[in-house]
Amino acid sequence: MARTFVLPDLGEGLTEAEIRAVLVHEGDVVKEDSPLLEVETDKAQVEIPSPFAGRVEKIHVHPGQTVKVGEPLVSFADGGGAAAPARSAPAAAAPVAPPAQPAVAPRADGGPVAAAPSTRRLARELGVELQAVRGTGPGGRITDDDVRASAEKPPGAPAAGAPAAVSAGPARPLAAVGLEPPPLPRFEQWGPVERQPLSHLRRTIAERMALSAALIPHVSHFDKADITDLNAIVTRSFEAAKQRGITLTLTSFLLKAAALALQEHPQFNASLDAGAGELILKRYCHLGIAVAADRGLIVPVIRDVDTKPVMDIARELEALAQRVRDGKAALDDLRGGTFTVTNIGALGGTGAIPIINYPEVAILGVARGREEPVIRGGQIVARMMLPITLTFDHRVADGADGARFAQAIVRRLEAPETLFVGW
């Protein structure tokens, strides 16, 4: 009996992907986890590995086609002993799973579990048996954090990813607003026009930005940080860092300053569950950094920024940004962000008001630092001043909260020694 692999739940609200390339042919015999398809989502262009080992019987898609979650991709012939149940993909006609999906129990049949190749490799390195791990990702998919938690838990402890207790009692839902745009006029009546189709990525960016603007009452706080001392440190340390294979930039220090400030102001490291009327405070700090690629703006994620030395952040940031620009970022590189930093300083400008990266509740925008006349000790001196803009969800924080959070970031940038823990 043929087994059909459908487009799995990609997580983070992703409901479709565009087929960029089919990497196998009908009749090919493939191994489990070998590259099957190249797809493009609103976050990245990635390879999807084969969930089975067996012979490709039928390919249901072609390059350029947009496929919804749950639609068939490839059918495999019955491979006898090679047969294995599908991974975390839902049934062909199943609806997309909601974000707050219950964890799926570990498999008892010895078949392959739902986990990315990188997660499988991590499990091997930590000596974790994936069959015994409870996945907390979309559709019960096992994440890197699930593997780490399983490796750290003592014998007899509850399985990794077991749902935590939640408070009982009814919650008042918060209303959302939907807008229907009016029809456009016939622009041709005034002169010649040209229609250019939007790419899959650009369409999805447009949808997500409109969603953020429609659902979230944005408020922005402006400030400036005196980064004269920090800039001197970056300049002085640049060559030494280069010899260690690291390109040291201001962005690494911005990420570290934001992460440390989030420890003081956790309401900005959160998501709002409007239906439940609850604020979800995240006890981890995975920061997104906006990267301008040829395909559009993409936000890869650096994990645990609050605990990493600046040099490690700089090394990881450089590698991650390069993978994004080369179109080689994995989905795991782009998931799980809790707060976003966007630095447009290299492009110029005196400031910008960024849109929140939903479902986060805040974003930090940074413009180009410039020397400005500043009064210090009664004297006018030239100092390097960095404009910053903190945009946040007014439903979860007030203006005073935003001002205090922005000042916590500024304070660290102006005292760079506080950023060099583990330097």
Task: Explain this structure.
- By secondary structure, this protein is α+β, with helices and mostly antiparallel strands.
- The chain folds into three domains: 1-94, OB fold (Dihydrolipoamide Acetyltransferase, E2P), CATH 2.40.50; 113-154, E3-binding domain (Dihydrolipoamide Transferase, Irregular); 218-419, Chloramphenicol acetyltransferase-like domain (Chloramphenicol Acetyltransferase).
- The chain has helices at 117-126, 144-152, 200-215, 228-243, 250-264, 310-325, 399-414; strands at 3-6, 16-22, 29-30, 35-40, 45-49, 54-59, 66-68, 72-76, 218-226, 270-273, 278-281, 287-289, 291-293, 296-298, 301-302, 339-343, 362-366, 370-376, 379-393.
- Strand 13 (291-293) and strand 14 (296-298) form a beta hairpin.
- Helix 1 (117-126) packs parallel to helix 2 (144-152) and helix 5 crosses helix 7 (399-414).
- It is globular and about 85 Å long.
- The model is unreliable at 80-111 and 158-172 (pLDDT under 50).
